[in-house]
Amino acid sequence: MTTKTTDSPSKHVVNWFEIPVRDLAKSAAMYGAMLDRKLELTEFGGVPHAVFTAGNKDAVRGALISDPKRAPSGNGTVIYLDAPDGLARCLARAVEAGAKVVLPVMAIDPNGSIALIEDLDGNVIGLHEAPAR
User: Fold this and answer.
1) CB atoms within 10 A of CB 36
2) How far apart (Å, rounded) are the C-alpha atoms in residues 90 and 112?
3) What share of the chain is helix, strand, coil (3-state, %, to 5)?
4) Rounded to an integer, what distance in angstroms lies between the CA atom of residue 123 and that of residue 52?
5) Phi, psi for residue 28 in degrees, rounded to 5
6) Within 13 Å of residue 48, how many CA atoms lie on the same side as its CB?
7) What's the pLDDT score for residue 80?
8) How many whole angstroms separate alpha carbon 128 and alpha carbon 106?
9) CA distance linking residue 118 with residue 83, whole number of Å
């Protein structure tokens, strides 16, 4: 078997993600509060999106989507979002905005710490805090 390599401009394996939600405005408010980051409301291909703003051009991008063909679920792939000001603060804001903590802060040495929340639609989403340097 031959492995093909490409000269992709992306530095990440993941280049886009979508999290299905039922109420885009309410979910965008919860995620925005949790991450202390504004989401941009837009539409692609007739599907409403709330796009996570990126801090730099190399950041992985993604969005919440409100698409009747895609149901929210806590039984699938888990993505991990960066907790830029720490897991404790992100979890506190998430709970205040209506999310539930599924897994409290857990060290994954030497790679920092993680936690899991269940969002307003039942999606299980990971949060990651890089190790202290």
Assistant:
1) 12
2) 15
3) 15, 35, 50
4) 17
5) -60, -40
6) 12
7) 95
8) 10
9) 15
E strand or H helix at 16 = strand 16-20
Encode pLDDT of 36-74 as tens digits.
Answer: 999 999 999 899 999 998 777 778 889 999 999 999 998
CA distance to 6, 99, 128, 132, per residue, from 122 (Å) = 37, 9, 19, 31
Residue 133 near residue 87, CB atoms below 8 Å: no
Quote the DSSP letter at residue 53: P
Which residue, 39, 60, 59, is CA-closest to 51?
39
pLDDT in tens, 79-112: 999 998 999 999 999 999 999 999 999 999 999 9
Q: Which stretches of the chain are DSSP H helices? A: 24-35, 87-96
Instruction: From 76, 82, 99, 78, select the one nearest 26 (Cα to Cα).
Output: 99
- Confidence band of 117 (pLDDT split at 50, 70, 90): very high
Q: Over the range 5-35, which residues count as b (16 or more CB within 10 Å of their CB) and which as e?
A: eeeeeeeeeeeeebbbbeebeebbbbbbbbb
